[in-house]
Amino acid sequence: MASATEDELEEIKRYEDFTTVDWIQDSILERNRRIRAGKHRWIEIGQTWIVVSIVGVCIGLNAAIISIVTEWLSDIKMGYCADGWWLNEQFCCWEIEGEDETDACDSWHPWSEVGPARWLIYVMCAASFSFVAAHLVQSLAKYAAGSGISEIKCILAGFTMKRFLGFSTLFIKSLTLPLVIASGLSVGKEGPSVHVACCIGFIVAGWFPKFASSQAKIRQVVTAASAAGVAVAFGSPIGGVIFSIEEMSHNFSIKTMWRSFFCALVATFTLSAMNPFRTGKLVLFQVTYDRDWHFFEIIFFVILGIFGGLYGAFVVRFNLQVAAFRRKYLQSHAVAEAVILAVGTAMIGYFNRFLRIDMTESMAILFRECDASTGGGTGDICQTSMQWRLANSLLLATIIRTALVVVSYGCKVPAGIFVPSMAVGASFGRMVGIMVRATYRAYPQSGIFAYCDPNSPACITPGTYAFLGAAAALSGVMRITVTVVVIMFELTGALTYILPTMIVLLVTKAVGDFLGTNGIADEMIKFNGFPFLEKEDHAYGVDVSVVMRTDLYIVPEKGLRVKDVESLISSTDVNGFPVVSGTTSGSASSLSSSWSDAAAATEEDGDGGKPTLLGYIGKTELKFVLGELFPPVIPLLHLHFTFGFRTPNFYLSSHVRSSNDRLLKWIRIVGLKQVP
Q1: How far does Cα 340 stand from its chain's mean position?
Q2: pLDDT (tens digit, 9 = 90+) per residue, 31-65?
Q3: Residue 4: which of 289, 328, 260 has the closest Cα?
Q4: Other CB atoms closer than 10 Å to residue 374's CB: what's the count?
Q5: Whether the predicted pLDDT of 598 surpasses 70
Q6: 58-62, 91-95, 434-438, 585-589: which has the highest mean pLDDT?
Q7: In sequence order, what are the beta bridge partners of 641?
Q8: Under 8 Å CB-to-CB from 620, ≥6 apart: which residues?
Q9: What is the reported pTM?
Q10: Alpha helices for 516-633 (secondary structure H)
Q11: Could you tell me how far CA 662 lies from the centroid of its own chain?
Q12: Are 190 and 159 contacting, i.e. CB atoms less than 8 angstroms apart?
């Protein structure tokens, strides 16, 4: 019990600004601002598009720089370029034809020709990158840890987290994200990219008084920035807009949709102009398919959908258990945890080709179509003689990567789950595709393959199975469908595979619904206790009396001493107390004589003796307030509680729910007087 209370207090200390936006007051201020603007409103309209454009350009530049640095750091673990230390393996061997022919490149040198030495350097680099990233996050910007999507959903719904979208978070997360990805941890950069994009949107919008003074308008810019973050992460501007509608925004207007689309378009155009990979692709695993699929393959597509649903349920369930263990035992060992995870991942993954390389590069290989020109290096993924060895390697990679995702997601470094899940699904899907193709080649006359052209060796395309498996795993863990369909369409540019993608995702959703799985972002919101209320969480058709009690412990508005509050907290087992004006009554008045004295004092002040509910304060928040404001030597101070919008901003605040308009407001200790 004591440990649970300490955890609750720690959570409140983390968010000393544990408040929500008063939308009514914000709309009043915005209306007054519009009246003052008068005829110059068209200038403000233009200002909105200028802000969105600046945000989009900044997001595109930031994404390009992160991509370039990440590629260089990922390659530096394996070797260096003799022509220039700043060149990664791809640019060092630019003149060599083929992605897998770098062994013929004289300019790229491995760190050692001895296998154990190369393994040791690989592990040491992973440990160094993870240590630097975790240390910077813990020392300078703790909000830079994690994905950030759960918190941003709460912010867009009206919750306030100071510094979560600040410059220090933006700078540290942009700096450490390449280090984390290069360390080999089974985490992705796509979720953190959304957080970074929202930081950019929040900071840029704060430069303009129109947005700085309106909580609603600045959140519209943050919503548009989240769309741009997904757009540059996947090279999918439309998918980014759909993501912001389906996953991020609580209330989405048409006006916000157009701004999100424009911001995503500008960010994607900027990233395309930067061309970080010098291939014309916005992401490494962007691919084009020119082959059709057959109806008998729907059977295997359903298998991929079932896998996606099972994978999502498994990861969400066990990752929450790991998160609980991390909170209980590893809270003060964040840096050591990140280093141990990186070292363990590097030591295990080095011996599997699909775990050793970067996950985006791995997906680029797994998505690849097989043709006559493919061969050599990891191109043997298309060689028939290697198919069963590859299938075993992919199965092992799927199992190990799944376990690593479960234990790695949530550690105190920038960590997303999009790409790791896609990598798991791609490994499983490619394995299924290889097995289906092997079955076709062994039994080409079987009735199930009747639709295949016997003169064509390319009846089965394993790369499409990897592609669909990646979509299934991503949908299974995030519980999003339309967004994944659009993103996958924009990655391939093939209308042909929209129907298979929809089939796979519908099966994934059905399996997830059957197992009662929620998206991992929503589960993390509940796990962290963030004040986010889904529309389906409201209860209808239930009488209020069902959840009410008549014997209440109440706190008077004034006349209560600190020691009385401490006595009340220690002698009750409730979670919070209503704050009332007027005479206190019921069980509260019988706790000690001070309660009756306080009631009598209230009657003398002319409140008429009729209790009036002002608000509510939780026991944990009250403990925190007392611990912050009052040392043990002054137990006789009287407390005065007031509610409202206009209160001095230098007083410590706590979180309350008003009974009058059901909006989250403030409860503040605004007066102290010494008992003579």
Answers
A1: 23
A2: 777 777 666 666 667 788 899 999 999 999 999 99
A3: 328
A4: 18
A5: no
A6: 58-62
A7: 669
A8: 5, 8, 9, 12, 575
A9: 0.78
A10: 520-528, 562-571, 593-604, 619-629
A11: 29
A12: no
